[in-house]
Amino acid sequence: MLQVKNWQHVFKLDPNKPLQESSLQMICHSGTDALIIGGTDGVTFNKVFDLWERVQQYDIPCVLELSNLEAIMPGFDGYLIPSVLNSRDRQFIIGLHHHAVKEYGDLITWNDLLVEGYCVMNDEAKVYQETSCQLPTANDAVAYAQIAEHMFHLPIFYLEYSGTWGDPELVKQVKRELNHTLLFYGGGIETKEQAQMMKQYADVIVVGNIIYKDIQAALRTVEACK
Ligand code: 1GP
């Protein structure tokens, strides 16, 4: 059964971005709780497989966040399934999910997957554009969090600012609504202080881009959660 309740900090690795072996090794030995493999574009089966294979030499949980049907592969410790709550296109809320389950439902080990209710807050992010989002106000985001917690009983609500620093006040407000649903925050965390700031409210912080810009800075974000 995929367990994320004890996670505090995770790194998200993009299969479409090159990562030196030395950097991967430091990431895997950093003390982070898990690796999420996921990205928005150029996520192919081969790229996901290559990265998964490289991670196998380390003792760290590794989960796949599915962004398309092409890159589904067995072998991960678990699977995160995004449902983009503020998408205008039903494909990204329930459509692709329905298609995949209709096709492969009998093969799915349901205990290995968790659904993430995504709320994408950065209109310049690739994920925002690719999934045809509508920009939520703070009140909209709080309402999506309430839906995730009280109506859909989702295990994860993911406040996604991918590529930019978010609003700590909104993260705080959203957290107030969530008792059972875990709050993931991701976006623009580049320093230990930023990690500490968001970790006050979010259950789990997700660190992505900085891995590819400044590996030492990325590693320092882990210390903030210890
Ligand atoms: C992206 O939420 C993650 O999906 C992390 O965001 O890449 O901005 O760190 P950054």
User: Do you know the CATH architecture?
Assistant: Alpha-Beta Barrel
Uncertain stretches of 5 or more adjacent residues: none
Number of beta strands: 8
Structural class: alpha/beta
General form: globular
Determine the mean pLDDT: 96
Bound molecules: SN-glycerol-1-phosphate
Number of domains: 1
Largest sheet: 8 strands, parallel, barrel
User: Counting H and I runs of at least 4 residues, what is the number of helices?
Assistant: 9
Oligomeric state: single chain
Distance linking N and C termini: 25 Å
Q: Describe it for me?
A:
By secondary structure, this protein is α/β, with parallel strands linked by helices. It has a single domain (9-223), classed as FMN-linked oxidoreductases (TIM Barrel). Helix content is 37%, strand content 19%. It is built from 9 helices and 8 strands. Helix 7 (192-199) links the parallel strand 7 (182-186) and strand 8 (204-207). The longest helix has 15 residues, at 90-104. It is globular, with a radius of gyration of 16 Å. The two termini are 25 Å apart. The structure holds SN-glycerol-1-phosphate.
